[in-house]
Amino acid sequence: MEHNMTYGSDYSFIPAVSIGSGTGREVRPDIWCQTVQIVNVLFVGDPGRPDDWVLVDAGMPRSADAIVAAVRERFGSDRRPAAIVLTHGHFDHVGAIIELVRHWEVPVYAHERELPYLTGKLDYPEPDSSVEGGLIAKMSPLFPNESIDLGDRVTALPADGSVPGLPEWRWVHTPGHTPGHVSLFRERDRTLLAGDAFVTVRQDSLYSVLVQEQEISGPPRYLTPDWAAARESVVRLAALKPSVAATGHGVPMAGEPLAEGLSRLAAEFDRIAVPDYGRYVNDVNH
């Protein structure tokens, strides 16, 4: 069966910010966080059960080989996930998705409100280089905002909050950064996979990204068009009281630093996260 899967952009320019790329760390015995240039992808599943795991997000463009190599290291040769779950469809989270789907022949799931950006129907708002922030924010117009087209290979996540392939997990709608952004949560051990609803490095700052200076921050400023929704999403995640969190950018956090940082972000979101100025700030009371 032929599937229509195309890119909306050739991704000819990707900034060479790759400190930490190719490294990985175990978040839980069944969760591996792999850094691919400036973003994390997650392997969720027991490495002792190599046919029963799920990939969360799909990294940067041209990173498919690196992701497959990391999977081989974690699960063994010729292993593929039961599914790929996308927290959202920004270029640094779906960069290798088309190659991976072709390589593995597996289904992809995302929130129904994210599907237009994954099936070629809508492009994301353009990155905002005018936003308050560091050098990466100024470089952001170079980042692709076009949709990709996965055709019928992408399906809406179940409305009941369940996550295909991950029976212990549920998805939480956390819009703001994108309309259909989701985070994943496991109640048993209060593990949170937050995507870009919040991150553990100030992503607009080149220095912070290069040295991976750890701080709980709001979603990347230059690609967040709805700050009111982003605030509500952080409050919703803080109420879950996660014990461990892995985010789309930055190193995973746990324990008291996570609890204190996330609580502070929820309580002082406007001061910490919302920029003082920018194209998408005008509608937010802060």
TrEMBL record:
Is rRNA-binding given among the entry's keywords?
no
Keyword list (alphabetical) reads: Hydrolase
Alphabetized SMART domains for the sequence = Lactamase_B
- What are the GO MF terms of this UniProt record? hydrolase activity
Q: Which domain of life is it from?
A: Bacteria
Domain named Metallo-beta-lactamase is located at 38-249
Q: Key word Repressor present in the record?
A: no
Say what the protein does: Counteracts the endogenous Pycsar antiviral defense system. Phosphodiesterase that enables metal-dependent hydrolysis of host cyclic nucleotide Pycsar defense signals such as cCMP and cUMP.
- What name goes with this protein? MBL fold metallo-hydrolase
Organism of origin: Paenibacillus flagellatus
